[in-house]
Design a protein that fits this description.
This protein is of the alpha/beta class. It folds into two domains: 36-164 and 337-407, Periplasmic binding protein-like II (D-Maltodextrin-Binding Protein, domain 2, 3-Layer(aba) Sandwich); 167-335 and 409-445, Periplasmic binding protein-like II (D-Maltodextrin-Binding Protein, domain 2, 3-Layer(aba) Sandwich), CATH 3.40.190. 39% of the residues lie in helices and 14% in strands. It contains 17 helices and twelve strands. The chain has helices at residues 62-79, 91-100, 113-121, 134-140, 172-177, 187-199, 217-240, 249-262, 271-277, 309-313, 315-318, 351-360, 367-372, 390-400, 409-412, 415-430, 435-445, and strands at residues 53-58, 82-87, 107-110, 150-151, 154-155, 158-164, 167-171, 203-205, 294-299, 319-323, 335-345, 404-407. The strands form three sheets. Strands 1, 2, 3, 6, 11 and 12 form a six-stranded mixed beta sheet that branches. A four-stranded mixed beta sheet has the order 8-9-7-10, with helices on both faces. Strands 4-5 form a two-stranded antiparallel ribbon. Helix 7 packs antiparallel against helix 8 and helix 16 runs antiparallel to helix 17 (435-445). It is globular. The two termini are 26 Å apart.
């Protein structure tokens, strides 16, 4: 999950050859269309045009909502546009109801692009190349992010917040005192680090999958990381979109590779039974014991919110981080797994909406949110001095340096699989079921239509 809330991505094929507004660039691959807005028209939902009000619906509330609104205040005053944000924890259901009933917001912030792409297919959302400088935007974003909102070649949303997952966290003082490699260049080198830690009498990996009805999702993240690194983004995309079956032999090999850690009693604290009974948010806590009971955890940037208060108060001295490395003999680049909140337009006729989107999806947005903590910009060009600590700056740097970004794979898949059988079969796998049987069972559960 990305900040526990997980996200989706789908891939597509073709687009239409048109430039809609002066200064707006054509979308790449100009060869087709997707009805409605995709054929050159403009979707016309949302609030009345030209009223100097722009309505936004999103999923995040509480402190995140306050930080989001604080990031808009100065721009609102300068532009004279009043941005009215509404938070809804059941965003996915609410946005469908509103759009289908003709009561859509001007802008929707999608934590999962699946519903967005449904709207794109229905011609109910505006392609971004009609109001954004597509090439300019793409040049500042982490590679691969815009693909998350691509439908038949056309892109229908742009990211305004990033969540990154491909990190290994460790207790800095104990780890460095042990003399362990802080920059392993491959998964094979990382395995050597794990062997050294084990030889010192410490479980190399901290791992917990327990998450109530979502138990198993941590394991799916590991599989996705390995598929991406062992076989590359093209195979990863084919797998998540079911162009190859879930039980393709390469995917089964990824399960077997993960078994070297997750099914080895000496590699994870408590062995497989401990993995399944440990809450994911508490998995790393034993690493801060003196001496540590386990040493490393692979997890997303949101994991910091679960660390003990004394650790958070001395974060830079207590916590170390490196990016989960590539697989030797696999994809040659450095991938990054994660998610993003994607901003999409339901009112393509309103100039104020376009202006808000131009700011919201730029590298100038988010300074106030970044300073408050818990937010990452999807832009490589964002001023990282806005981040509150060196750990967050390191996370942002690793994400910005990634050669390719891919969304959480289980969110790309149909819900029945991604947050259904993939989770439940991972639990059976950790309990002893074979990799082949696990992959076969998930493949058999894939919806037929």
């Amino acid at each position: 999950m990305s900040g526990i809330r997980k996200r989706v991505v789908l891939a597509g094929g073709m687009a239409i050859a048109m430039t809609f507004l002066a200064g707006c660039l054509q979308n790449p691959n100009p060869t087709g269309g997707a009805g409605g807005a995709g054929l050159g028209g403009f979707v016309d939902g949302g609030s009345p045009d030209g009223d100097k009000k722009v309505t936004i619906l999103g999923a995040f509330g509480g402190g995140e909502q306050k930080a989001f609104e604080a990031s808009l205040t100065a721009w609102e005053q300068e532009s004279g546009i009043d941005i009215q944000y509404t938070a809804d924890q059941d965003f996915t259901t609410t946005i469908k109801q509103k759009v289908n009933s003709g009561d859509s917001p001007d802008i929707g912030l999608f934590p999962q692009p699946g519903g967005l792409l449904e709207f794109a297919g229905q011609g109910k959302v505006q392609p971004i190349d009609t109001f954004l400088d597509y090439d300019g935007l793409d040049s500042t974003l982490i590679p691969g992010l815009l693909d998350s909102a691509r439908y038949k070649g056309r892109v229908y949303a742009a990211p305004m917040r990033l969540a990154a997952k491909s990190f290994v966290w460790y207790p800095k003082q104990a780890y460095e005192a042990g003399g362990y490699n802080t920059e392993p260049k491959s998964i094979q080198e990382l395995q050597k680090v794990a062997d050294e830690i084990k030889a010192d009498g410490i479980a190399p990996w901290c791992m917990g999958w327990e998450s109530a009805q979502a138990t198993g999702w941590v394991g799916t993240d590991w599989i996705e990381e390995l598929v991406l690194r062992m076989w590359g983004p093209d195979v990863y995309d084919d797998w998540t979109s079911h162009r190859i079956p879930f039980n393709d032999e390469r995917i089964v090999k990824s399960f077997d590779e993960f078994a070297k850690i997750a099914k080895d009693e000496t590699m994870v604290l408590g062995g497989p039974k401990g993995v399944l009974s440990t809450a994911f948010g508490k998995a790393a806590l034993p690493s801060f014991d003196k001496p540590p009971k386990c040493m490393m955890e692979r997890q997303g940037n949101f994991v910091l919110s679960f660390y003990p208060k004394p650790v958070l108060e001395d974060l830079e001295n207590q916590v170390g981080i490196f990016v989960y490395p590539p697989f030797e003999g696999g994809f040659e680049g450095q991938p990054m797994l994660g998610g993003a909140d994607l901003a999409a337009v339901f009112n393509g006729n309103d100039e104020d909406v376009k202006k808000v989107m131009q700011f919201l999806t730029s590298d100038k947005f988010g300074a106030e949110w970044a300073k408050a903590g818990g937010w990452l910009s999807p832009h490589k060009t964002f001023d990282d001095s806005n981040y509150p600590d060196d750990i967050t700056r390191a996370v942002a740097k690793f994400a910005a340096e990634a050669d390719v970004f891919r969304f959480d794979g289980s969110d790309v898949m149909p819900k029945a699989v991604g947050s259904g059988t993939f989770w439940t079969e991972m639990v059976k796998w950790e309990n002893g079921q074979s990799s082949k049987e696990t992959a076969d069972n998930i493949e058999a559960s894939w919806p037929k239509s």
